[in-house]
Specification:
mainly alpha, 314 residues
Amino acid sequence: MLFKIVTSLIYQHDKHFFSLLMFYLASMLFKNIHYQGTLSNLLLLPTIFFVIVTAILAIVCYLVWDVNMWEGWTLGSNGTNTIFCEQNHLTEFIRQRANTWSNLAYLFYGLICAKLALHDKASKPQANFITRNPAISWVFGFTFLYLCFGSFFFHASITRIGQHFDMGGTYALVAFPVLINLSQIYRHYKAISDTRLTQITIVAAIAVFALLFGLKWQMNSSILLPALIVAVLVSTLWYHGISKAPYQMWFGALAILSMSTAFFIWWQDVTKNWCDPESLIQGHAFWHVLTGLGGFFVYLMLRSEKTTAQPAQE
C-alpha cells in the first residue's frame, strides 16, 4: 500500500518520471555492454528472424503433425521412463509440445548475440576482449543455436540420439564462458595478442565441444553439469579479482537468480509437485527459458568488462 501511494505521488508530480527512469536504466544497460544503439534497434533483427523461423517450423510441423516419424528410433531416458511432467504423444511428430517449442528461447538469445557480433564488427568498440573480437560473440551465439537444435530435437523425438545432441548443446553453452575466463586469466600472466588469444579460445572451444559430445555416454551429466557451473563461478571470480577492469557483476547476480529459479522449477516438474501432463504450461518449458536467460546474462557479464587497453597485435 505504501509503495502504491509513493509511486502515485511521484507519477502525479511528474508523469514522465517512469519513462525517464526506464530510459536511464536502458542507457546504463547499453553503456555497460558497450552497445551503441537503442533496445528496439538491438532487438529488431533478432525478432524478425525469430518470427520467420518460428513460422516456418510451425508450418512444417503442422503439415506432418500426425506423422510418426520417430517410430523405430531408440528412445532416450525420457521415453523409456517419464522423467518430466509433460505427457509423451508417441504417435505424433512433436512428442512433447511445450517442452519442444520452449527451446526457441535459445534461438532468440543466440540471435541477439549474433546482432551484437554484427554491431562490434561495424562499430569496432575497443572496450574489451569480446567487443574487439566479434568471433567470440559468434561462437557464443552458436552455443545457443546448438542447444536450441539439440533440445528441440530431443523433446520432439524423445530419442537417444536427440538426447545426445541436447546434452552436447548444454555442455557447450556452460563450457564456453569457462574457456573465455581461462583465456583472459592466461593473458593476465603472459602477454599475448588479441588475435592469437581469440584463435586459441575458438580452437579450444571446438575441441572441448567435440570431446563433450563424443564422450556424452561415458560421463554422468548429474556430476559434469554442476561441475561446469562451478567452474563458471570460480573462473569468473578469479578473473574478476585479478582484472584491472572487472566485470559488471550484477549481470552475474541476474544469471544466478535465473538459474536458481530454473532449477527450482525443474525440481518441481520432475518430482511432479507442479504437474498437469496435458497442459501447455510445463515446468521444464520454463527451465528452457530461464536457463537460456541465465546463459545470456553470463554473456552480458563477460561483455560488460570495463574498458581495457588493447594489447599490441602480432
